[in-house]
Amino acid sequence: MTHREKGQTMIDLHLHSDASDGTLKPTEVLRAAKQKGLYAFALTDHDTVGGIPPILYSGELTDIHFIPGIELSCEAEKHEIHILGYNIDICDQKLLETLEGLRRGRRQRNLSMIEKFRDTDDARKTSARQRRDGDHQGTFCKSADRGRILCQ
Q1: pLDDT tens digits, residue range 24-67?
Q2: pLDDT given for residue 90 in this prediction
Q3: Percent of the chain topping pLDDT 70
Q4: CA distances from residue 70 to 66, 93, 96, 99 in whole angstroms, order as listed
């Protein structure tokens, strides 16, 4: 029995599709919302409006209200926060440019993290090889409490 059949009005204003970190295609999100008997739903993918057109042009927006939305990733005082936006204009050029900038920034951060992991992994392998071979030159050591030395 759906919520509507029970006389309840249910909405979900924070759903994701595979356009960001969800697992369902946008039209599958729409179908799932309808199957649950939701009165309304919003697709709020992370930093993209790419999932909205498939829903708008699906021809399946009967018996349900759809709210185009977005979840923007931002940083405030060195903390990542997420801001939900509703009834957005997915054709707004300023919005699309901003989203492209966010994607470029995320891609650059991801590439930087990959490089750091590679550097860390190379240093770890070098250190392990030096310990195995009895060569501690160049091994990073630091003092620990009670006079012990820890080598990494």
Answers
A1: 999 999 999 999 999 999 999 999 999 999 999 999 999 999 99
A2: 97
A3: 76
A4: 13, 15, 12, 10
Question: How many angstroms separate the CA atoms of 27 and 57, rounded?
Answer: 10
DSSP type of residue 37: T
Query: Measured between alpha carbons, how far is 111 from 102 in angstroms, rounded to an integer?
Result: 14
- Closest listed residue to residue 26, CA positions, set 2, 50, 59: 50
Structure pTM?
0.70
Tokens at 21, concatenated: 């970190």
How far, in Å, CA of 2 to CA of 31, rounded?
Answer: 13
Residue 67 token pair: 């709210």
Round to whole Å and give the CA distance between 63 and 110. 41
Q: Are 17 and 26 in contact (CB under 8 A)?
A: yes
